[in-house]
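I am still getting used to backbone structure tokens and would like to learn alongside you. Would you supply a protein for us yourself, any chain you care to pick? Start from the sequence, derive the backbone structure tokens from it, and show both lines together. Go ahead whenever you are ready, and we will take it from there.
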Amino acid sequence: MIKDTFKPIPKYMLKLIKEADLKHYPAQDGHTRFYSYLTKFKKQLIRVTVAVRNYRKKWLCKQVALHGVHSSKCYVKDMVFYNVAGYKVGWYEQGIGQYRKWFEGFEWDYADDKYFKIHCPIINKEFINKFPEYKYSAIELYDGNDILNYLRLYEKYPQVEYLTKAGLQSLSTSKMILNQCKKDKKFCKWIFKHKDEVKGYYYTDSIIKAYKQNKPVKVVDRYEKMKKELEQNSNNYAETKSIIKKDEVYKCLDYLTEQNIQFSTYNDYIKACLYLKLDMTLDKNKYPHDFKFWHDTRIDEYNTAKILADKKERQELYKKFGIIAYKYQPMQRNLNEAYCVIIAQSPADLINEGNILHHCVGKMGYDQKFIREESLIFFVRNKNNPQIPFVTVEYSLKTNKILQCYAEHNSKPQQEVQEFIDKKWLPYARRKLKSMVVA
């Protein structure tokens, strides 16, 4: 692609872009919008991205990025990308601004092809029909944004067409799947036979493992997700990782699946057992037959042992807990609604909540996480019975997300309660937290 001799936007294309812009943004305000069009240059398919905006009743449009189907480089002009702010376009040459921004210039600059692929409408997708080599690419069925990458893959892997036509577009651009299809015809037949099953959102390596192991994709994928969760959350599940060896991972996953246990609950149990110095090489301790019974028993033993060991520090703990609770009181919600949300005021509140609802919020270090401001504990109560424990929420201050939300016996809250938490309290709490940070 020769950037110095590339042609400006044709008049007919300017007209099409403006018509599309009026359709998408009838108000025609002053913010920058992006569109793309396809063209041919030096026998190569080119995707041109343009920036559009309005200024003093003028409609402005200019080229800002060029991508070629066979080019390892893209070319950029008057545009930069910030991780936080996104794409920024300079309009000095068009008379906007007193000074030229640092990234504005008269020449095109180059970058790796993977950059500046802005997700925006493509004005003339049918232009691809002018290239005979893409006649059977099934590009008309592709609704993704990176058309050029799709065509590159098609040139290398003809299987792209078959996967797309089979309704497996999510897999048609996976190099792992395409490589497997290319070298293994039996896999191709298998994936078409199981196309309805693999349409779900599964890891691609789970699909290949399901084929090789002759197991349902759903089962293999569940194992893979649990395995990745264990690996990626090593800090949260350090106790479990310390006793589960590599060759025992699937045995552990089978056990958790059979007992319907979450990783967090199992790790709490392991943590308690290790604190109590139980022999975790024994299967009766590692994989108890009645997990719920032994989980509750070990947690109670752990809680008692911790209280006795930390008796001298309890007073300081309660003081710190109260300071944090007061700090985040604005995140409580007590409006004229069916439910209210209050923040835990002391470790005793956590213990009481956990005892009544039969879960572990009063144990396993949630009070320590609270005073370290890693996560906060809120109690959702029925407005008519605000003193009776109902639903418990753990909120992460790091991610601004709900980590856990349980009613009695670690059960999911009723749908209307969950909707109240997700749609009313959570956005409200985030706004309050943001205002606290700003203040």
